[in-house]
């Protein structure tokens, strides 16, 4: 009796058309997934320039300091001197051990945005490395003196903004460094 049931079932299976997994099926269009709005900081009205700036910061955070330095240097040479670009150039030049050039960019950044505590802190670090402890101390004390900072555009941060919490962390770090000087 089992053979009698199996034979017709097997014949039915063999008579069915073959089914392919992917190549014979018609392409099904997927609905477009809405993209998240770009939440990165907008430094200029030109989205291409903002993309170049974000790329320079991406190179920096990926430890591609030479490429980052070249990106920031090109931006500045073309007149894009937003304080975050100047800060990025200072960071990249410091990592590339061009301290004089890094100081120049950080000085310009701080002149444009006096409460840029990250630039002040980095400049203090440069002065410490150059054994100019009086200037380092002055910059660290300036970090400690900053109160109620409005968000600072800073490509070092994933969200592109340094806020009061970041300032509090830097102040604590500055205070600890001052104790050792």
Walk me through this protein's architecture.
Strand 1 and strand 2 (161-162) form a beta hairpin. It is globular and about 45 Å long. Strands 1-2 form a two-stranded antiparallel ribbon. Helices cover 62% and strands 2% of the residues. It has helices at residues 2-15, 47-61, 65-77, 83-95, 99-112, 117-129, 133-145, 164-180, and strands at residues 152-153, 161-162. Residues 1-5 and 7-38 have low confidence and may be disordered. With 181 residues, the chain is mainly α. The protein is built from eight helices and two strands; from the N terminus they run H-H-H-H-H-H-H-E-E-H. Helix 4 (83-95) runs antiparallel to helix 5 and helix 4 runs parallel beside helix 6.
Ordered list of secondary-structure elements with their pairings:
Elements (H helix, E strand, L loop, with lengths): L1 H14 L31 H15 L3 H13 L5 H13 L3 H14 L4 H13 L3 H13 L6 E2 L7 E2 L1 H17 L1
Antiparallel strand pairs: 1-2
**Which overall shape is indicated by the principal axes computed on the Cα atoms?**
globular
Strand order of the largest sheet: 1-2
**Overall radius of gyration:** 29 Å
Low-confidence stretches: 1-5, 7-38
Share of helical residues: 55-70%
* Topology pattern, helix = H, strand = E: HHHHHHHEEH
Total number of strands: 2
Structural class: mainly alpha
Number of alpha- plus pi-helical segments: 8
């Amino acid at each position: 009796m089992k053979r009698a049931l199996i034979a017709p079932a097997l014949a039915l299976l063999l008579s069915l058309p073959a089914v392919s997994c992917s190549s014979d099926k018609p392409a099904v269009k997927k609905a477009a997934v809405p993209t998240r709005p770009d939440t990165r900081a907008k430094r200029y009205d030109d989205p291409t320039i903002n993309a170049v700036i974000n790329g320079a910061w991406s190179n920096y955070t990926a430890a591609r300091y030479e490429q980052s330095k070249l990106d920031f240097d090109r931006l500045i040479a073309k007149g894009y001197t937003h304080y975050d670009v100047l800060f990025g150039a200072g960071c990249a030049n410091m990592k590339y051990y061009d301290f004089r050039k890094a100081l120049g960019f950080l000085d310009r950044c701080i002149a444009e945005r006096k409460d840029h505590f990250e630039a002040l802190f980095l400049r203090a670090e440069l002065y410490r490395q150059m054994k100019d402890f009086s200037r380092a101390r002055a910059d660290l004390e300036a970090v400690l003196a900053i109160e109620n900072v409005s968000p600072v555009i800073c490509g070092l941060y994933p969200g592109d903004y340094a806020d009061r919490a970041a300032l509090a962390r830097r102040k604590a770090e500055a205070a600890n460094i001052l104790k050792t000087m």
